[in-house]
Amino acid sequence: MNQGVGPARQTDPLSQIASFEEALSSYPKEQFPVYHGMLQYRLGLAYLDLFVGDRPKNLRKALDALHEALTVFDRDGFAGEYARVQNSIGIVYRELPGDRVANLQRAIGCYQDALAVLDKEKRPQEYGATQNNLGLAYAELPKGDRAENLRRAMAAYNEALTVFTRDRFPRQHAATQYNLGLAHAEFPEGDAEENLRRAIQCYEEAIGTYMAAAAIDQTALVYNSLGIAWMALAQPDSLKKAIAAFSEALRVVRKAEMPAQYAIIKNNLGLAYVRREADVATDLRRAVGAFQEALASLDPDSRALERAQVEENLSRALGRLAEVGHPGTATDHLVALVAAGDDEEGVVIMREQVDHWTKISPDARQRMVAQWVDALLGLEALHRRKVVQREVHTLLERPTHQMEAVLKAHVEAVNNLPPSDQVSGREDLAQVAWELYGPQRTRVLDMLRQWWGEI
Predict the structure, then answer these.
(1) What sign has the CA pseudo-torsion 319, 329, 368, 440?
(2) Which residue among 238, 326, 394, 410 sits deepest, i.e. has the most Cβ atoms within 10 Å of its Cβ?
(3) What is the pTM of this model?
(4) In angstroms, how far is the first alpha carbon of the chain from the final one?
(5) CB 277: neighbour CB atoms within 10 A?
(6) 341: closest CA among 288, 280, 282, 393?
(7) Which candidate, 301, 317, 225, 231, places its Cα nearest to that of 265?
(8) d(CA 231, CA 54)
(9) Whether the Cβ atoms of residue 286 and residue 273 lie closer than 8 Å to each other
(10) Which domains are delineated in the chain?
(11) Per-residue pLDDT at 381 exceeds 70
């Protein structure tokens, strides 16, 4: 996690850029050197924060502005400003496309230049942020001795933590602990298990600090890394702890805002279930559900490689299920899991399915719901009705137009079944509807009567 220093950043970089560029024309360097330099610095930060348009071009413009600021803020006369600008240039170089090694080496140089003039006692926050960023650059450096690069990264993180204490700078403390944990987890020398345990300690410290600072939204990545570390430990209950960590991450991450991150965590959860196999069929079916949900969250155009990996994981899980005597499609296994799972698990899976059905095209929704209805036929009547009940109860949580779209797709799927199966399909929906109370019963029955007449 990067840590910047300097003035608070606004939410609209484009308007900032326009304002700073206009101001620069009124404050030439020759007449207003300090103010000109500060405007160039702020302009560089605005371009660094600009993610619309051509990102590499924005980063190069950030570099131009920041380097121009350095023509004013030399290390002797403006040590604090010089350090801030150098830290920001380092952040730009870490992200800049091109020669990765050269850019990271430039970033390291910038951070070291900043640290050479920063007074740890007088500017602790800037000192800690720059040490943290130096650690990130060393951790990402692909050239040279990997162990030595990570040692330098960990040394920088630990130095940052001398000022980023939990009490004084909780969020920075948590972010740096997380980065330190990543370095321990990847360290290639020494006892691998001990390295992982150190990583776990760092992740747990980061999570605890974020929670205490009411920054729960920052914990998703940390929980995911914690799950990966537990999954790598060949210890009793380690997979159980990995599953718990991934599940916590999924409670935090906002699927609509971060679909790719959500998919990565779901995929990791699926891998943990595949490896655990406490109850072989159930865990493999849980893995299938996780992989399916990951695929539903990945854009097929921009995330082709990630989708291919998840699809391979899904295929292996289905193959393993067939090997242990449970052949079938992914939908067959999800329906079986909803039928067999406890209330909490069944509700979660059903909500994920309904959420996906409401977001796809009508044709795609009809195909997927038809597969769901076909899979229901493979269950005994009691289990089949249990799944339909969970589906209807989940639909009742949704807005009317979404509920009607999915329920209509279910009705049309039942209408397309063979006559004997149509009877069962209609009876399942009718019985579930009549078991509801008050307005909920009326709401469902009114919809069914639109398509089937009297129920």
Answers:
(1) negative
(2) 410
(3) 0.89
(4) 58
(5) 15
(6) 282
(7) 225
(8) 38
(9) yes
(10) 1-144 (1.25.40)
(11) yes
